[in-house]
Design brief:
Elements lengths: L1 H9 L8 E7 L6 E6 L15 E10 L2 E7 L12 E6 L6 E10 L2 E9 L10 E6 L15 E6 L5 E8 L6 E6 L2 E8 L7 E7 L7 E12 L3 E11 L9 E7 L11 E7 L2 E10 L8 E8 L2 E8 L13 E5 L6 E13 L2 E12 L10 E6 L11
Length: about 375
């Protein structure tokens, strides 16, 4: 199904009449890109890709249908070389977005994003999309620290090595436990840092389906490796369990290991943040100080991050946000309701409002979620603790 969708996109099934382009600066590193896209398909904020300078474009083919094209990606047949993508919807309504395909060809990565209302009808919706690509180490090393991992999982629980990456060189595995119920096993070494988990439904044939993380914790993984297990639940728009493809990523360094910039990684757990799973990363070059605060007023969660995030944050400071629900047996989705960025180096401020919803679009009274923030900084790699 994924290959058929890729073929359709290559064949020109996406209308290119509506194209918005912005040229951005990049520095040589692992391919990474992000875009904040308005509901009408125009670009809201800058995009950063990690090699050279080129343009990023958005194609808005029809109602609720978008393709975001990121230059700077290289076709690769190596494990993990198929790349990865995540999306989070934005706005004050209860629309949601999902990924319907992505592929790398001709030096660029194309990500197709679809958005719709809870009733299943397509709807123009603002969103943030992130795209990145790594390749597996040639020799697995059980003693190597695990800093990031990603996988594209089919509805029947299969993982293709081409779309699977783990910084240890050991592949992630998945066990389907029942309809819409998956356990993702991530080999790790001393993964005891705050961790970002991002889950996105890949709903090519089931528009409006949702997938979210139900649990997360350490566990042994055969053959004798340490591991983290991420439980993922998927349902249709009515809340019925549904076998659905999805993308899942986990990292202790933001959205993806070695991505330049500064990160806020938040595990907001109920009415208060869990300090063991909440952290911010300052400017890599100097390990500059940052701070994070969180409040909740009813169903609205507000996150504020302040500090020195590097010399390339731009003026004004700008950030994209990715959010994944974290709660028990009922899948759902979260939205970034608004982002307010201000300030300039060395004192930047970002405030984000987030609400979460059930599969049928009902507001969740107490939001639980993973949250990953990336800044517009493209400074040197590494991270500070």
């Amino acid at each position: 199904m994924k290959l058929l969708l890729i073929a359709a996109l290559v064949a020109g099934c996406v209308d290119t009449d509506e194209v918005e382009t912005e040229t951005v600066a990049r520095s040589a590193h692992a391919p990474f890109g992000y875009a904040r896209v308005r509901a009408d398909g125009s670009l809201l904020d800058r995009m950063d890709i990690m090699s050279g300078t080129d343009a990023v474009s958005v194609q808005h083919a029809s109602t609720g249908v978008y393709t975001v094209i990121f230059p700077g990606f290289v076709s690769s047949s190596l494990d993990g070389g198929g790349g990865h993508a995540d999306v989070t919807a934005e706005g004050t309504d209860n629309n949601r977005c999902w990924i319907s395909s992505w592929f790398i060809a001709f030096g660029q990565m194309s990500v197709a994003v679809h958005c719709g209302r809870p009733d299943g009808n397509a709807a123009n919706t603002a969103f943030t999309v992130a795209a990145y690509q790594r390749t597996m180490p040639s020799v697995p090393d059980a003693n190597a620290p695990t800093t990031s991992a990603y996988a594209w999982v089919t509805g029947n629980g299969e993982v293709s090595p081409f779309y699977d990456f783990n910084s240890t060189g050991y592949h992630n595995t998945v066990r389907r436990q029942g309809p819409g119920n998956y356990l993702v096993f991530v080999p790790v070494k001393n993964w005891n840092h705050p961790t970002s988990v991002v889950v996105t439904p890949y709903a090519a044939s089931d528009p409006g389906s949702v997938c979210s993380s139900a649990s997360y914790g350490a566990s042994p993984i055969p053959p004798g490796l340490q591991g983290v297990t991420i439980s993922v639940l998927c349902s249709d728009r009515f809340g019925n369990p549904l076998d659905s493809a999805f993308s899942v990523a986990a990292s202790t360094q933001g959205v993806i290991d070695a991505q330049q910039g500064a990160y806020g990684l938040v595990w907001w757990y109920g009415p208060w943040p869990d300090p063991d799973y909440s952290f911010t990363f300052g400017y890599h070059g100097t390990c500059s100080p940052t701070s994070m605060s969180m409040t909740r007023s009813g169903a609205l969660a507000t996150l504020a991050i302040d500090g020195d995030f590097g010399s390339l944050d731009g003026n004004p400071f700008r950030t994209p946000m990715l959010v994944t629900p974290y709660w028990g047996a009922t899948p759902g989705y979260c939205k970034v309701e608004s982002i307010t960025d201000s300030g300039a180096v060395p004192s930047a401020h970002s405030q984000t409002n987030i609400r979460c919803y059930t599969a049928n679009g009902a507001l969740v009274a107490t939001p639980y979620f993973f949250f990953a923030q990336v800044t517009s900084d493209a400074a040197a790699p590494g991270y500070c603790r």
